[in-house]
Design brief:
Blueprint lengths: L1 E4 L5 E4 L4 H33 L3 H26 L5 H6 L1 E5 L7 H17 L3 H9 L6 H6 L1 E5 L8 H4 L7 H4 L9 H13 L5 H16 L12 H24 L10 H5 L42
Antiparallel strand pairs: 1-2, 3-4
Helix pairs in contact: 1-2, 2-4, 9-10, 9-11, 10-11
């Protein structure tokens, strides 16, 4: 791992490419270059023999082929792909500036020109010695160009949704949060910090956490309990916000109760059949006048409350 200071003055820890992976990538690129040289020399030789070129023109043609393959091949690939030749692409490597920025044409040209001496002319011995002595594995071309090779292909990180969780001691406080003033931009910044804080140095991690916690705390209420760490505070706020959003979406998707559909407390009350006659009088009160409920006979005629004679 190497510390890289970005243009925003943030210190990041990035994985430098190991020597075996760089050697394998270089071997792939050299193999492709040798094949290109062989093919182009065959074409140039056949063309020179067919057209009857003199020795000077033949030498100039051979020199042009050498420059195009030895210098033009890495410079073209690394410029167009922002630091990835076919060999580096196969091994998951990429050339970057010392500040972590993508490789530029000037840097690729310096690396390609220096490689003609340290790799092709001197058979790679200076590049080997310099890479073993450098903390970032730099060869001479990297030192002159201000670049280094980093390991871009890494194991996938755990999804942020699985990493976010409200600490048990903050659960009662999180349930009372007022999150309506929390902006989407602030939440997204905090989410990115939590997903990448493992890549930061301890100093940068603590500084960014305190800065983000102050921004988030100004937009939510009530404040967290005293002594709450900033990362735990951010995780609790984002988790509670996500849980409430999911609950709101699920509630909107649940079908509403239609007419006549039992809902609420009324649906839970048992059905009590109605009684005929008067309700029982409370103790100590005067008896109420008897009241009889009209009874409808089978024929549907009202008899005034008296049953028909037998």
């Amino acid at each position: 791992m190497a510390e890289v200071v970005t243009g925003e003055a943030v210190v990041l820890e990035v994985p430098c490419a190991r020597f075996p992976s760089r050697l394998a990538a270089l071997a792939i690129d050299l193999l492709i270059q040798f094949v290109l040289l062989f093919v182009l020399f065959l074409i140039a030789g056949a063309g020179a023999a067919g057209s009857g070129l003199d020795t000077a023109l033949t030498g100039a043609l051979i020199l042009t082929v050498l420059v195009l393959v030895i210098v033009g091949y890495p410079v073209t690939w690394e410029t167009l792909t922002r630091g990835r030749s076919p060999g580096k692409f196969a091994l998951g490597l990429r050339v970057a500036g010392d500040d972590g920025s993508p490789e530029r044409f000037r840097q690729a040209l310096v690396r390609g020109l220096v490689a003609t001496v340290e790799i092709w002319a001197l058979f790679g011995f200076p590049a080997l010695a310099c890479s073993l002595l450098s903390s970032r594995g730099k060869r001479l071309g990297d030192m002159f160009a201000g670049t280094f090779v980093l390991q871009q292909r890494l194991p996938a990180r755990r999804p942020l949704a699985a990493a976010l969780a409200v600490p048990p001691e903050l659960a009662p406080w999180a349930a009372t949060l007022e999150l309506s003033a929390l902006t989407e931009q602030t939440a997204e910044t905090a989410r990115r910090y939590l997903s990448r804080m493992a890549e930061l140095t301890p100093v940068a991690r603590a500084e960014l956490a305190e800065r983000l916690a102050a921004t988030v705390q100004a937009q939510v209420s009530p404040p967290p309990p005293p002594g709450t760490p900033a990362p735990a505070f951010l995780a609790a706020v984002l988790t509670e916000r996500r849980n409430r959003e999911q609950a709101r979406l699920l509630g909107a998707q649940r079908p509403a109760a239609g007419p006549g559909h039992p809902s609420g407390a009324a649906a839970t009350q048992p059905h009590t059949p109605a009684r005929l006659g008067n309700p029982p009088a409370p103790p100590g009160s005067a008896p109420a006048e008897p009241h009889s409920t009209p009874i409808q006979p089978h024929g549907g005629q009202n008899t005034g409350g008296f049953a028909p004679p037998a």
